[in-house]
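Before relying on records like the one below, remember that each one covers exactly one chain. Contacts with other chains, cofactors or solvent are not represented anywhere in the record.
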Amino acid sequence: MCIYYGDKEGLTYREVEHVFPAGIGGISVLERGMVSDQANSLFSKLELKFMHESLIALTRVLFGPGKRGSHAGKDMAKTRISIVNDDDGKLTLGYISGKAGYYIDCLAKHGEVYTFTVGSEHHDDPLSAWSAFCGNMMNMGSRFVSITSKELEPGDWIAGFYNSKYYIAHGDDLDLSRVKRTLKALTEISKPGKLNEKMTQPKFDISLVDSDEITRVFAKTAINVLAHLKGPEFVCEERFSEIKNWIIGEGNGDRFTQLPRINIDNPLRFPKNAHWCIFQKIGGKLVAVVCFYNAYSNCFELAEALPTDPGIPFGFICDWENKKEYTLEQWVYSVIERRCGYSYGT
């Protein structure tokens, strides 16, 4: 039975759900059968927004993890392609990876002026970049990533190509057929002009959100950790229904989204950039604190506390940089061992 959708008809269980989101380094997974494919699909969409459009996005890009857990090189995490300013203040397309910004190959229409930006990866060979861009644009179909921006004047646009995807940035209006005709004509008859050697790194003005959808990822992580530590029967108790309904978008989240974000002075000093979730009884409630990168935290009253709930704090820690995870108890013992010389469990 799905811990989120219960015994709803038609649920399938082919995929597994990570306890902490896999995109930020989560290692452990819940046992197959705890979370349905339908819930997993919903969470994947929420986590995409969480990883690309929240405060987490820049931290993930700066520190990782990237593709396949990599912390460096071409597999480092990247922001989404967005509108950036070049060194001359003109609008173009680019992304951030690590601590730097990068351009992608793109052609911009600003009024009657057309400007080709050579992508950072091709800056040493602009002619080849232009030739490849022309070939890619000739094959452009109806599928592309739309980027709407009020920075662009009516009728202006920026068309780019990166990692096998097409991008078109535009204002509120977009005449796609006209853009494609213009692109076809320009790429057939035009040649690139002199390379602007001043272009180094793009300047970003990234809009980050802190929305209900982002907060639901925090809360979902708390339920996942609770299921991992206490089992599916525990989180399927009726007292957790309200918060779980809100997590899957079927309930009112006012009470949960208004709870304060807190920063904890943690004497245990969890690993650098770790993710963690700690549970405790407070004021007759079972409370969870979920924290990502030791920096961004949310507190949730999950349910009424019962006498059978643990009386001392318990939780789970993800040291994704070192690919290790600990229960709170294990981490406490490791601290004792390092500081006092006692072996684990003694």
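Residues 2 and 34 are 5 Å apart (CA to CA).
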